[in-house]
Design brief:
The chain has 257 residues and is an all-alpha fold. The protein has a domain of 87 residues: de novo design (two linked rop proteins). The chain contains seven helices and no strands. It comes from Ectopseudomonas oleovorans (Pseudomonas oleovorans). This is Methyl-accepting chemotaxis sensory transducer. Pfam families: HBM. InterPro entries: HBM (IPR032255).
């Protein structure tokens, strides 16, 4: 080997040296380029995963806003928009990765996403039903308030000497107080629907109103005729008193002689 190398000319020796250096340089360049391409690809995958995590975070924020807003239209639209962005990003990653381990994890995540969509649809339906019931309760509460106001005006039109006026006012005041208490409990239950707050909302009022009160009488305004009829016994009974209070003739005092 040494003899063969010694017999070569200087030109060939230089060419052989430069060729060997060039081959080593090309090998190093190819290795570095391959490593750089792998790093770039890994960085791209990491950026895609980071974007997927960001879309998932936005989806969670939109879901919390949806729950705080009680499922109104703007929060629902925002939630659906973020959900579509997240699902598109997840499908993009599912078509990008080729490693069987990563593909298996992405497929499992896709099954979780389907379960999440079903749960979210159920929650949206529940919020829609709750909003409908809330509107119905508001309408009935308004009707009940108007009925109580009509009843109060009807009772206030009764004469002050009526024996049933004060008990009816007292019963109406108790009913109005119970209505205010029920409103407060409903607001607490609506803000925090927990079993503890549910037990505090009675379905039947714990303060029973006397049954002898003629409630049908208060549904319409009383006419003046019953009032006039009720005044007749008072007038007839007051006539003897007036006669008894009539001035009597004063007899002259006896004159002392």
């Amino acid at each position: 080997m040494n003899t063969w190398f010694a017999n070569l000319s200087v030109t060939r020796k230089l060419a052989l040296g430069f060729g060997l250096v060039l081959a080593l340089t090309l090998a190093l360049a190819w290795t570095a380029w391959s490593g750089l391409g792998s790093v770039i690809q890994r960085s791209s995958w990491m950026s895609e995963i980071t974007q997927l995590n960001a879309t998932l975070t936005n989806l969670r924020i939109a879901r919390l806003q949806f729950m705080l807003a009680k499922g109104d239209a703007p929060s629902t639209e925002r939630l659906l928009t973020n959900l579509d962005i997240y699902l598109q990003q997840q499908k993009k990653l599912l078509g990008t990765f080729t490693n069987p381990v990563n593909v298996k994890l992405l497929q499992e995540q896709d099954r979780y996403n389907q379960d999440y969509q079903r749960s979210l649809a159920g929650m949206r339906a529940a919020y829609a039903v709750a909003a409908k019931v809330r509107d119905q309760v508001a309408v009935e509460d308004q009707q009940l308030s108007e009925l109580l106001a009509t009843m109060r005006r009807s009772i206030e039109q009764l004469p002050e000497y009526d024996a049933n006026r004060f008990p009816q006012l007292q019963a109406l005041t108790a009913t109005h107080g119970e209505l205010l208490r029920l409103r407060y409990l409903l607001e607490r239950y609506d803000s925090a629907p927990m079993p503890k707050s549910n037990r505090r909302c009675p379905s039947v009022s714990p303060w029973p109103v006397p049954a002898w009160i003629p409630w049908s009488r208060f549904l319409v305004a009383p006419s003046k005729k019953p009032y006039a009829v009720s005044r007749r016994p008072w007038r007839s009974s007051s006539r003897p008193c007036r006669r008894s209070r009539a001035p009597r003739p004063i007899s002259p005092a006896p004159v002392r002689k």
